[in-house]
Design goal:
- There is one protein chain.
- By secondary structure, the chain is of the alpha/beta class.
- The protein is built from seven helices and ten strands.
- It has an eight-stranded mixed sheet with strand order 1-2-4-3-5-6-7-8, sandwiched between helices. The protein has a two-stranded antiparallel sheet with strand order 9-10.
- Strand 3, helix 2 and strand 4 form a beta-alpha-beta unit.
- Helix 3 crosses helix 4.
- The termini are far apart.
């Protein structure tokens, strides 16, 4: 009887482990881009496709560390997008150039208007050559510095009609909209901007003005401002805090960052809906 009870306990204890779903593991791809080989991490659903695909653009903290090919904030989103049937390609704009985080670097070697836009173009060119990609459903999602690059990449002036098909849509999390607004931004593809109303790292008002000013001369552009949310509101399990002066360069120089659970949940819903358009 004692042996039977022990076996039953062992079976019950082991059941959750057997049912656990292993986390998806990305694999690295190499994308030629002029004098640079662009390293990127790819999450791909099982099967032959074709799959809708997202090019995901990291912020100034970079994509990876020495021990992690994809930081948790980007891995979290990649896993969510995988569950909705998307493949996710994450180009490493800094690591590919042997650079670390760039948040506090004054003279950045990787500019959003040049190198990062070139990385986006190279990633798209690589994707359209892959049989498993739904070529008409390649979208962009970016955070911070990556979102700012996204805003440049979707401008009408940045597109050649010989480069069909175009991106399907774009989602920009808390970009710095000040330069884009000042230069008369508009988009050629549907673009959604998500930002916290209390974001003191970037400027919610500049993003609002940018989107409002684009009406009538742009593809669909919308902005959602979460009134109580700060920068990085969509990151999981990040307590709200002021950015430390002694930061290691993975955060901006000033302001506050932290999770807003309600804004995070709503953003997840909105991103899924926007990408399914």
């Amino acid at each position: 009887m004692r042996l039977k009870s022990a076996l039953m306990l062992l079976t019950i204890s082991a059941a959750p482990l057997a049912a656990a779903t292993p986390l998806p593991v990305p694999h690295q791809v190499e994308i030629p881009e002029g004098n640079v080989t662009l390293h990127a991490q790819l999450y791909r659903p099982d099967g032959d496709g074709p799959f809708p695909t997202v090019i995901a653009l990291h912020s100034c903290d970079g994509l990876a560390t020495r021990s992690e090919p994809v930081l948790p904030r980007y891995r979290d989103w990649a896993e969510q997008l995988l569950t909705s049937g998307h493949a996710v390609l994450l180009p490493d704009s800094y690591g590919s150039r042997e650079l670390g985080p760039q948040c506090r670097v004054k003279e950045r070697q990787v500019q959003v208007r040049r190198e990062r836009v070139a990385d986006i173009s190279a990633a798209r060119q690589w994707l359209v050559q892959q049989k498993w990609v739904a070529k008409g459903r390649i979208s962009l999602v970016g955070w911070g510095n990556g979102a700012a690059a996204l805003l440049w990449a979707v401008r009408p002036q940045m597109w050649s009609r010989n480069s069909e098909p175009d991106f399907r849509s774009a989602v920009a999390f808390y970009p710095d909209c000040r330069s884009s607004f000042g230069l008369g931004w508009s988009a050629r593809v549907p673009t959604l901007v998500l930002i916290g109303g209390r974001d003191d790292v970037t400027s919610p008002s500049a993003c609002h003005q940018m989107v409002d000013a684009a009406r009538g001369r742009s593809a669909l552009a919308r902005i959602v401002v979460y009134p109580e949310a700060y920068h990085d509101f969509d990151r999981a399990n990040l307590p709200l805090h002021a950015i430390a002066v002694s930061s290691d360069g993975t955060e901006a120089e000033r302001g506050h960052v932290g999770t807003d659970a309600d804004a995070r949940k709503d953003a997840q819903r909105r991103v899924a809906e926007w990408l399914s358009r």
